[in-house]
Amino acid sequence: MRAVRLADAHQLEVVELPDPEPQAGEVVVRVDGCGICGSDLSSYKVGLFSDAVPGHEFSGTVESVGEGVRDWKPGDRTVVDPKMPCGVCDDCRAGAAWRCAIALTAGLGFARDGGFAERVLSPAQLLHRIPDSLDLHDACLVEPLSIAIHGVERGRLNGGPAVVVGLGPIGLFTVAVLHARGVETIIGVDPVDDRRRLALQLGATNTLTTAAEVRATIEPAPSVFECSGYAPVLHTAADLVAPGGVMVMLGVPFGEASVAPLMWVTREISIVGSIASSVQDFEDSIAMLAADPSLANIVTRRIGLAEVPAAFEELIAPSSGGKVVVDPAL
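Given the sequence above, the corresponding structure tokens read:
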């Protein structure tokens, strides 16, 4: 089968790999689509999880099942939750398996081959059914939408305005979730015109190019969602939070940040991390996408496997477009 493998930092290769064969408890999924995520780009820049096939936002059709798999059969439509928690760490035992370090590193599309391929070998327990009302082409968006749902849950909404900094796919879905939760004033911030336009379609009431512009537009907001993952913007984003408010960090900042936290203390601001999503978030995401197919409009480009290496270089500093999905059939 064809696949895209991360050979080293800034080096993706289209390769031929053996077709996977399911063992006991496993299934082979023929990939319909796999989204390119910001964490994929972060791994690409430093060569993290090299020699593996990236891609953890994927859906497809069951092609074959291994011994003991009773709930799935060839032809079933599925979206896969890529996390593979260890089951024994403190987070797993506390019911927060999405925070498990193994879940965040050893799953499909990370240390284990993922969805930038024609087929993926997956433990059967990671599969979720796709309802008839959800188009298979759109189902690969379930995982990133579940991340936004989890982040909004962490934001402790109180009905006031909300600011979303960074309108990549996670930021755009955060706008959509806030809108669905009844937030009336949503400010989206991103320098890319296409992303600001998409944010308005998803429910943003206003969009701006920089976080610094927000202070001239509205008073500090009770909820700010930092979705860019760009470490230098953290202090500016936190400065947008109202006294007693919260900033949720959905972006994953690999770099260092210079901050002056005195005002965080005197204004009693909460800085909250948000990582991955729970099983309930994943199920809620499936239902939300099935109920509102227009959410899939964040996808502005579907590409074949051969186009993936060039697309990654473009997405490091995007100047246009929204979500990019890899379709192995193209």
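The two ends are 14 Å apart (CA to CA). Try to locate this feature in the token string yourself.
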